[in-house]
UniProtKB/TrEMBL annotation:
Subcellular localization, as worded in the UniProt entry: Cell membrane
InterPro entries: BSK, Kinase-like_dom_sf, Prot_kinase_dom, Ser-Thr/Tyr_kinase_cat_dom, TPR-like_helical_dom_sf, TPR_BSK1_C
GO BP term (any one): brassinosteroid mediated signaling pathway
Organism of origin: Sesamum indicum
Main localization of the protein described in the UniProt heading: membrane
Protein keywords: ATP-binding, Brassinosteroid signaling pathway, Cell membrane, Kinase, Lipoprotein, Membrane, Myristate, Nucleotide-binding, Serine/threonine-protein kinase, Transferase
Descriptive protein name: non-specific serine/threonine protein kinase
Amino acid sequence: MGCLQSKTANVQSPDQEPSQPDSKPDLANGDQVDQDQVPAFKEFGLAELRAATNGFSSDLIVSESGEKAPNVVYRGKLRSNRLVAIKRFSKQSWPDPQQFVAEAAGVGKVRHKRLVNLIGCCAEGDERLLVAEYMPNDTLSKHLFHWDKQPLPWEMRVRVAHHIAQALDHCNTENRKIYHDLNAYRVLFDEDGDPRLSSFGLMKNSRDGKSYSTNLAYTPPEFLRTGRVIPESVIYSYGTVLLDLLSGKHIPPSHALDLIRGKNVLLLMDSSLEGQYANEDATALVELASKCLQYEARDRPDVKFLLTGVAPLQKQKEVASHVLMGLTKTPVVLPTLLSPLGKACARMDLTAVHDILLKTGYKDEEGAENELSFQEWTQQVQDMLNTKKFGDIAFRDKDFKSAIDYYSKLVSMMSVPSGTVFVRRALSYLMIGQPELALRDAMQAQVCLPEWPTAFYMQALALSKLGMETDAQDMLNDGASFEAKKQNSWRN
């Protein structure tokens, strides 16, 4: 049964009051993230995250060398096959587990297409972990400082500057004005090659610890003076990232400002670009960096000014990021739903599902009915057959409450459970608005028949009704895979 829990980790027991569905965030400028792709924030169990990282294997560490944060980020794969990034804090970072979960849940509400969205956390024992979307195409640091095939083109550098500004602007609208230690390691590239800002930076490295882990030469002056981070500190750090984008090197701000004041802007520019940029655009970005790096916090611009400054510099907005970066984009191809039942479940057409189950009957349980004929003919067997008959009649006539009663009685009588009975009772529960119980029965059907596509499709239907769209899609895919396997075996 353990393998069946992955899709239902945040499903409540049927005995609990159903929780209110999470409301989808109302994002500014229509930048709604795809809720089918980004699951709702949840608390994970430590066992699941340990399994996802092969016991926190050092082979799965994805933080690049050079980042001096005291915490480690792993690549992991959840039981749903979703790839995630898991940040593991030092044990002393957050002594109070409730405070950690509350802080993480607050960050988890901030959703945007320009952010690497936080999808969960874990505070169990001494462990404190954050779980976020996985970005497969490395960090800005890798593409700027450690590139192999080609330097990051100018247009992509401008796009990075714009996307970061958009992410920070959205964080401001969500009243998350503090971003800790913004640097080239915090910008990651998704499967489309689009740059996104890590949501990890919205949360401090510890309850009372330092907010900056990079070299002091890049730290905002006011943090060095007071130890406090203010919204203007984020602007300063944005300026250091602009320097990275301009130079392709990690130049201390003081040295960069000396070059700017001396009108030696060309000395600041990345030579690997080989002049493939407009001088006026480079000058505009240099001037913006200079404004961000002002010593006094009050002299720095706000985020809206950053957006206004970088938006006009984009000249190839119609070119996809993966094309600009020379990345090979491999589209995710979902298995084809082969059967009418799979398609009916995918479109959540309960009436069509009912019709198909009626036509299918019990034929998928090979030998199950024949088994009865070899048993000693007793009154108990007669009662069981009558109960099944009345249940099937009620199911056929769409008297779903009666069907549930008869099938429940039948389940208690049968020595060998029937997957078809569980599936029929699952659909009956869905018809009367009890998806938690439907999911439980669909899982029981899978126990009876481990590779039965119908059991997977019914779980998908129940998960969709519970609002767990990503897990529902995983179940549809599993059902389709078993169906394809069965068809291939027939052909062979």
